[in-house]
From TrEMBL:
Keywords: Membrane, Transmembrane, Transmembrane helix. The chain crosses the membrane at residues 7-28, 34-55. The keyword Transmembrane applies. It comes from the Bacteria. This is CAL67264 family membrane protein.
Length: 59
């Protein structure tokens, strides 16, 4: 199975979404003192994931 550009962008989008979710959950559940920093970083990862998803089929 060969991976083309769209497959790579799809996997990158999925993995960055997972990292963003993990960061938000870490901030909310484990490190309450640093919840704002973790959440802002996680939301940044969500936006990067959205951009990767939007690039599928365009590059």
């Amino acid at each position: 199975m060969a991976m083309n550009k769209n497959t790579i962008f799809g996997w990158a989008s999925f993995l960055t979404f997972l990292v963003g979710t993990a960061l938000v959950l870490l901030g909310v559940l484990k490190y309450r003192d640093y919840a704002i920093g973790f959440s802002v970083t996680g939301i940044g990862f969500f936006f990067i994931s959205w951009v990767f998803n939007a690039l599928k089929g365009r590059v």
